[in-house]
Design goal:
12% of the residues lie in helices and 31% in strands. It is mainly β.
Length: 413
């Protein structure tokens, strides 16, 4: 950032780092790079490990997940519609709407529909437990099986009231469910039917499902975080009463099946029942829904660029320069240039538990004095941020430097 209170910021950095004045450059004084290993944060929504994929084939890794590559730059003819991690989370598949498959890490290629004429586009995929095969499903419920994935039936010849939006395989891989946007359920193989919301008026469309560990029930999740439980799947709560600006994308069961996480498309999670800590690493398709999403996508496109004192881009940025450029270029929204002024005047305040993609978060030496703010970052989700600091534009934990200097609210421009 550029600050008129350089002396106050320098003192703040000395206090934080416990180092002497000598050796600190002006850049590190205003936008410090703090030493030490990242630590799990206590601020804001639950911490999470996840991959975000874009329709263009970009993949960004967060938390403890590793980067295995992306399809960005391949001049894709069709958008990416799904990212599916392998069982050991050491790789993932990307599926395009034409059924083209891209493999990374230990994910293996077993075939695709990339060269087949499809009546309707592919919308989801599911992998077999051993990772040696997978199913693709089209919006009409057409099923395409590859590797050791077995075809058990489809709705391709059935008139559907609503399009298919997802699928889930039974744990033994001998069946699967298809779920439509109205919550209609279609069971094949050893997948049993336990009920649906097909005849219920929904406030928001169904976007996904997950089965219980014993394969004798399932949960459906709507885009507003609403949960519907069937069979031995118990209802432990939902996020529908206070939905996030980013839509829910997955329901992730706990190991016991006595709880679950509702996961938004930006990696934000809400835990219910005995779900606690970090859910298993998920692959999420990030599509711009809000202005904040658009700001985040612009910030992602700047990853790896250098930290430059007073930098406004495109060559490099300081912290507040990245925040401003991301909102201006991504969402067409402008606000103050300096971190302290951004905290004081940009948009509206947001409580830590309500942070959404694109919200700005701040650090200051006094949580009651906006003039002491010295650093800005852009919140992504799952307690992850994109920021420009001493190492350049990068992805980090929100709580990587502890909680002491985090300001008590963020801002939504």
């Amino acid at each position: 950032m550029i600050g008129a209170r350089y002396g106050r910021q320098l003192i703040a950095v000395i206090l934080l780092l416990g180092v002497g004045l000598l050796g600190l450059s002006s850049a590190s004084a205003a936008d410090p790079t703090f030493p030490g290993s990242p630590q799990a944060p206590l601020y804001g929504p639950a911490y999470n490990n996840f991959w975000l994929a874009s329709a263009q084939g970009n993949v960004w890794n967060f938390g403890d997940t590793s980067s295995y590559g992306s399809a960005a730059g391949l001049s894709l003819a069709h958008p990416i519609v799904a990212i599916t991690p392998t069982a050991d989370a050491k790789g993932y598949w990307l599926a395009a709407s034409d059924g083209g498959i891209f493999t990374f890490g230990d994910a293996t290629f077993s075939g695709s529909t990339g060269g087949i004429h499809l009546n309707l586009p592919i919308v989801a995929m599911a992998a077999t437990a051993d990772g040696k095969g997978y199913w693709l499903v089209a919006s009409d419920g057409g099923i395409f099986a590859f590797g050791d994935a077995v075809y058990y039936g489809s709705t391709g010849a059935i008139h559907l009231n609503s399009p298919i939006v997802g699928m889930a395989a039974t744990p033994d891989g001998k069946g699967y469910w298809l779920v439509a946007s109205d919550g209609g359920i279609f069971a094949f193989g050893d997948a049993a039917f336990y009920g649906s919301t097909g005849a219920i008026h929904l406030n928001s469309p169904i976007v996904g499902m997950a089965s219980t560990p014993g394969d004798t029930g399932y949960w459906l999740v709507a885009s507003d975080g609403g949960i519907f439980a069937f069979g031995d799947a118990a209802f432990y709560g939902s996020a529908a009463a206070d939905p996030s600006p980013d839509p829910a994308e997955r329901v992730v069961p706990s190991a016991t099946g006595q709880g679950y996480w509702v996961e938004d498309q930006n990696g934000g999670v809400t835990a219910f029942g005995d779900a606690s800590g970090t859910p298993p690493a998920q692959g999420l398709l990030f599509q711009p829904v809000t202005p904040g999403d658009k700001a985040v996508l612009f910030a992602f496109s700047q990853l790896g660029k250098p930290y430059i004192w007073g930098g406004n881009g495109p060559v490099g940025y300081d912290c507040s320069g990245l925040a401003l450029a991301s909102w201006e270029n991504g969402a067409g929204v402008s606000f103050a240039r300096v971190s302290a002024d951004q905290f004081h005047t940009a948009g509206v305040p947001v409580n830590p538990g309500a942070l959404a993609a694109g919200d700005l978060v701040f650090w200051g030496t006094s949580q009651t004095d906006w003039t002491t703010v010295y650093h800005t970052a852009i919140y992504v989700g799952g307690n992850q941020i994109v920021e420009s600091t001493g190492g350049g534009v990068q992805l980090n934990f929100l709580g990587q430097w502890g909680q002491t200097d985090l300001m008590p609210v963020g801002r939504r421009p």
